[in-house]
Amino acid sequence: MTFFPSLYLPIRLSLGAGVLLSGLFMAGCADAGVHESRTPMAPPVGHHNNVDEGFADWLTGFRVDALKAGITGKTFDRAMAGVTPDLDVVSSDQNQPEFVKPVWVYINGALSDKRVARGKLLLVENKSLLERLEKAYGVDRHTVVAIWGLESNFGDFMGSQRVVRSLATLAYEGRRKEYGRSQLIAALKIIQAGDVGPEGLLGSWAGAMGQTQFIPTTYLAHAVDFDGDGKRNIWTSRADTLGSTAHYLEVSGWERGANWGYEVTTPTGFDYAQADMAVKKSVDGWQKLGVKRVDGKPFAAKDATAAGAIFLPAGHKGPAFLVLNNFKTILSYNASTSYALAVSLLADRFRGAGEIKGAWPLDERPLTRAEREELQDLLNDKGYELGKPDGIIGFNTRKAIRAYQVKSKLPADGYATSSLLDHLRR
Ligand code: CA
Questions:
Q1: H-helix or E-strand spanning residue 5
Q2: 235 Cα to the center of ligand 1, angstroms
Q3: Which of 55, 193, 261, 268 could be 323's S-S partner, Cβ–Cβ 3.0 to 4.6 Å?
Q4: pTM of the entire structure?
């Protein structure tokens, strides 16, 4: 799911892998099972009471706003009874990883033999439910199960924190007050509707809930009661969990029966500046430029006119993918391209595909945060105007890297490497 660092805010937040944070759902990590360890911050002596008093004042003010938003006093008082700020949430929010995991470490972890085998078993076990979901929402069962596997390791890691407490903490102090506030109002609406009580509303420190890791606003808009018991339950109902994921994909633009994309090879002399999610051509168009499927098979005829982009997750030395509309739809679940690729490849494994053919550039060392900031500094010095370095290689940094690579006659893949940093230092 979605993460926090300024990069990825939004729709979900994912925290995990340190690859990316994204956001419809904030929160826990997509990396199934890889949860950051948290060191609780020890409050200075004498600080605690002040925090409590400040929080009590804040809560009084927030209650007025919640009631204006349609929450009853009864719901509010029941949900917020005894709630105190959670210092673990504050430290998790402030924690910025020093190292970003190389994408291949994340992908290999996501596609572990264990996860592939378990997903295949669950596909068999839930065959009739998945058939009904495909009929109802037009999505693909393998993708739904792959998302379930990455969001919560098929329900193993949903987060066990009380969501109202986590969100109240974020709303009270920290960098995401507005996020915390709007999500807390949504959480109170969920409680008021009776789907779940305050004690049952569990999730990650950032508020991503249940097996689908929906943040409260996403839950309110898109969770479904697929087992028909009158409640939307993404914590313990498998039908509601998978149904909610399927429904979310449908409303995000899933194209029934279409492929997510292909692993491809690019021809010698290919202009890597074209390998950008914003550069779209038809599959036919890419083929005319010399892009081929890595296995030598033809592209499916139904995809000939579909719009696609070339995605190089590890730069021009690594594997290449031609990604289509449904890949973009997966990005609406979590804005990280690494996540969307992991889901797509995991779904392929469930269908019986083998490992990808392209080799990862294993000799490339990930840049440390200090090095990423230095790289941004050096690009600033050369006139690319990135603003204050934040160590996050996002859209603008990639764009500046490409421009610098074009100017320096380097393969313009927009990828930050230690050799690029060396080049900038010279
Ligand atoms: Ca239900």
A1: none
A2: 10
A3: 261
A4: 0.86
Q: State the DSSP H helix or E strand holding residue 74, giving kind and residue range, or none if neither.
A: helix 73-80
What spacing in Å lies between the alpha carbon of 236 and ligand 1's midpoint? Answer: 9
Q: How far apart are the first and last CA of the chain?
A: 39
The span from the CA of 242 to the CA of 227, in Å, is 10
Whole-number Å distance, alpha carbon 391 to ligand 1 midpoint, is 43
Q: Among candidates 183, 195, 200, which has minimal Cα distance to 223?
A: 195
CA–CA distance, 387 with 394 (Å, rounded to integer): 12
Contact 240, 227 (CB under 8 A): yes
Task: Output the CA 199–ligand 1 centroid distance in Å.
Answer: 18
pLDDT tens digits in sequence order for the chain, 426 residues long? 433 333 233 334 333 333 333 333 333 333 333 333 333 333 444 445 556 789 999 999 999 999 999 999 999 999 999 999 998 888 888 776 666 788 999 999 999 999 999 999 999 999 999 999 999 999 999 999 999 999 999 999 999 999 999 999 999 987 889 999 999 999 999 999 999 989 999 999 899 999 999 999 999 999 999 999 999 999 999 999 999 999 999 999 999 999 999 999 999 999 999 999 999 999 999 999 999 999 999 999 999 999 999 999 999 999 999 999 999 999 999 988 999 999 999 999 999 999 999 999 999 888 999 999 999 999 999 999 888 998 888 889 999 999 999 999 999 999 999 999 999 999
Bridge-partner residues for 12, per DSSP?
Answer: 25
Tell me, in angstroms, the distance from the centre of ligand 1 to residue 240's CA: 5
Query: What would the DSSP string read from start to end of 175-193?
Result: S-HHHHHHHHHHHHHHHHH
* C-alpha 195 – ligand 1 centre gap (Å): 9
C-alpha 162 – ligand 1 centre gap (Å): 21
Q: How far apart are CA 74 and CA 31, in angstroms?
A: 38
- CB-side neighbour CA atoms (13 Å) of 368: 2
Q: How far is the CA of 239 from the centre of ligand 1 (A)?
A: 7
* Ligand 1 centroid from CA 243, angstroms: 10
Give me the phi and psi of 276, to 5 degrees please. Answer: -145, 135
Q: Is the dihedral of CA 206, 329, 5, 99 positive or negative?
A: positive
Distance 133 CA to ligand 1 centre (A): 14
Residue whose structure tokens are 């970003």: 100
